[in-house]
Specification:
The complex is a heterodimer of chains A (about 300) and B (about 250). Chain A is built from 8 helices and 16 strands. Chain A is α/β, with parallel strands linked by helices. The radius of gyration of chain A is 21 Å and the shape is elongated. The mean pLDDT of chain A is about 95. Chain B is globular, with a radius of gyration of 21 Å. Chain B has a single domain, classed as HUPs (Rossmann fold, 3-Layer(aba) Sandwich), CATH 3.40.50.620. In chain B, strand 8 and strand 9 form a beta hairpin. Chain B contains 6 helices and 13 strands. In chain B, helix 3 crosses helix 4. In chain B, the strands form 2 sheets. Chain B has a 9-stranded mixed sheet with strand order 9-8-7-10-6-1-4-5-11, sandwiched between helices. At the A-B interface, helix 3, helix 4, strand 5, strand 7 and strand 8 of A face helix 3, helix 4, strand 7, strand 8 and strand 9 of B. Bound molecules: flavin-adenine dinucleotide and adenosine monophosphate (AMP). The site of adenosine monophosphate has 23 residues of chain B, from helix 1, strand 4, helix 3, strand 6 and helix 4. Flavin-adenine dinucleotide sits at the interface of chains A and B.
């Protein structure tokens, strides 16, 4: 059995989700190969060769793959995909974009967002916003899978010594074109890899008030998240949304401030180790999942917390 | 331009679903069913394109049991012109749905297909991308803004880290994210009018599509239960607990 993990990278280095993808591949068991596709991505290919447990790295370095357009990437992965028993990547917006396209090109199902490996053809995955866990078995010859980023401990980025092979397969379908990206500059840890997260909801009232959370976050080395209501109201950018349709996080400590605890929000954070809720409504559903609840006005409690850290 | 939109019948997003005690699935008896929230956004976008004169017809498709006609009626009340129900009692998976939709695309030849980014029951987020692959169309997933040009669409996409803008040739498949628009409510007169709008019915077999599942659900279990913790009296006590009991801050 050979497993292909499609890497996420920035041309120079490998991004953390890739290490989770390799961990899931290791849980399935078999020979693990990593595909690094991009333009000018040789350094990322070298970095991938160092990942623990990887036996071979395939580098597809071509302008066609520069912006990871789904049409081109899926055509590439599908072309080489027939050689593998499993094709994996992590459930990021990028993986979610091209991987179902790969599956359809190969005429196989995709198993989305697995949270556990039972055997080489049987997997666990959350459904209904995490209110149920399905154990599913695939009868396809090639299993195309996306992996929940919080469900497996990343493998070590160093320690491996894989061979590197260049692929000169060029798939440039020419039916889509990348125009631009507006990437939010991060001054803090990324949500999906932070060990502490403090999130604000509609109770924050406006974007300026997020400064209260920023000050606490700076002291704790925390990332800042938000509920959908806070994003929709324009307090903070969409990238900060935690939940069923935002980011799935599982830090050691999650502090929810002015968030009611809708099912869709809980879906994104209820696997956190310790949950703290600060809310002025003692009946807010967030208290049902919180290890430590504080019924208080956030505009008093958060500055107080800040001063005690 | 004809726009094809999809509307899945799903458990209403406000329902807290329960796993059946025999672990065969979740309890769908007497629970409220609705149009998948992302599909409401897809319908709204299509109707706005029609109102702007960019689209001339909006056709809504649902694949599901006979009762999915209700969700088609909802879409018709929101402004879609015509419905197509592909009736099946089978729990068709995304690849099967995409194959059915491909058959509909071949019949209808739409200039644009808009689906939701994810159905909130299975949380798969696959169907639009698979349809695009099967029909050879480009895709623009997780859209938060759509601009139709001459022969192409420029779409702003929600991605990890922020936003990305791409341009795809038409016909294309677009999948909707939450912030694309705010769906309207259907007015009573429009609900009445919707009853008279045409709805075609097929089965997957009529369309020559094999929807046999490739993935079998062996069991469905509740997630690990999280015990409610304690209510602390003060910020001071909270900090003390986090430092000395949970040991998550120092
Ligand atoms: C298809 C779909 C997908 C969704 N996906 C997501 C998702 O991914 N993530 C997500 O978060 N939501 C999602 N939602 C939205 C979700 O249903 C809720 O609407 C949302 O989470 C509510 O956000 P909130 O808790 O900030 O706001 P509210 O529910 O309005 O709660 C605000 C809370 O703040 C408290 N508060 C107000 N003032 C203060 C104060 N001064 N001090 C202390 N507490 C205060 C209030 O008591 C209240 O509990 C989704 C919805 C749908 C339909
Ligand atoms: N049975 C169905 N009927 C109509 N549309 C569907 C169906 N299943 C999925 N879709 C569409 O595909 C989108 C993504 O679904 P999924 O891939 O299941 O998460 C949904 O938001 C719908 O727009």
């Amino acid at each position: 059995m050979s497993i292909l993990v499609v890497a996420e990278h920035d041309n120079d280095s490998i991004k953390p989700p890739t290490l989770v993808g390799v961990a899931a591949a290791a849980a399935i068991g078999g020979d693990i190969e990593v595909l690094v596709a991009g333009a000018g991505c040789a350094a990322a290919g070298e970095a991938a060769a160092k990942i623990a447990g990887v036996s071979k790295v395939l580098v597809a370095d071509n302008a066609a793959y520069e912006h990871f357009l789904a049409e081109n990437i899926a055509a590439l992965v599908a072309e080489i995909g027939g050689n593998y028993s499993h094709i994996l990547t992590v459930t990021t917006t990028s993986g979610k974009n091209y991987m179902p396209r790969v599956a359809a090109l190969l005429d196989v199902a995709q198993i989305s967002d697995i949270s556990g490996v039972v055997s080489e053809d049987t997997f666990e995955r959350p459904i209904y916003a995490g209110n149920a866990i399905a154990t599913v078995q695939s009868s396809d010859a090639i299993k195309v899978i996306t992996v929940r980023g919080t469900a497996f401990d990343p493998v070590a980025a160093e320690g491996g010594s894989a061979t590197v092979e260049n692929l000169d397969i060029v798939k440039d379908l020419g039916i889509s074109k990348w125009d631009k990206a507006d990437i939010v500059k991060l001054e803090r840890p990324e949500l999906t890899s932070a060990s502490i997260i403090i999130s604000g909801g509609r109770g924050m009232q406006n974007g300026e008030n997020f400064a209260l959370l920023e000050s606490v976050a700076d002291k704790l080395g925390a990332a800042i998240g938000a509920s959908r209501a806070a994003v929709d109201a324009g307090f903070v950018p969409n990238d900060m949304q935690v939940g069923q349709t935002g980011k799935i996080v599982a830090p050691d400590l999650y502090i929810a401030v002015g968030i009611s605890g809708a099912i869709q929000h809980l879906a994104g954070m209820k696997d956190s180790k310790v949950i703290v809720a600060i809310n002025k409504d003692e009946d807010a559903p967030i208290f049902q999942v919180a290890d430590y609840g504080l019924v208080a006005d956030l505009f008093k409690a958060v500055p107080e917390l800040d001063s005690m850290l | 331009m004809k726009v094809l939109v999809t509307a899945k019948r799903v458990v209403d997003y406000n329902v807290n679903v329960r796993v059946l005690s025999d672990n065969s699935g979740v309890d769908l008896n007497n629970v409220k069913m609705s149009v998948n929230p992302f599909d409401e956004i897809a319908i709204e976008e299509a109707v706005r394109l029609k109102e702007a004169g960019t689209a001339d017809e909006v056709v809504v498709v649902s694949i599901g049991p006979a009762s999915a006609a209700e969700q088609i009626r909802t879409a018709l009340a929101l402004g879609a012109d015509r419905g197509i129900l592909v009736e099946t009692d089978e729990d068709v998976q995304p690849l099967g749905i995409a194959k059915v939709l491909k058959a509909i695309v071949e019949k209808e030849a739409p200039g644009l297909v808009i689906t939701g980014k994810q159905a909130i029951d299975g949380d798969n987020s696959q169907t639009g991308q698979m349809l695009a692959a099967l029909t050879g169309m480009p895709q623009a997933t997780f859209a938060s803004e759509v601009v139709i040009n001459d022969g192409s669409a420029t779409v702003t996409r929600e991605i990890d880290g922020g936003l990305e803008t791409i341009t795809v040739n038409l016909p294309a498949v677009i999948t909707t994210d939450l912030r694309l628009n705010e769906p309207r409510y259907a007015s009573l007169p429009n609900i009445m009018k919707a009853k008279k709008k045409p709805m075609d019915k097929y089965t997957p077999a009529d369309l020559g599509v094999d929807v046999t599942p490739r993935v079998k659900t062996l069991k469905v279990t509740p997630p690990p239960e999280r015990q409610a913790g304690i209510i602390v009296e003060s910020v001071e006590q909270l900090v003390d607990k986090l430092k000395n009991e949970a040991k998550v801050i120092s």
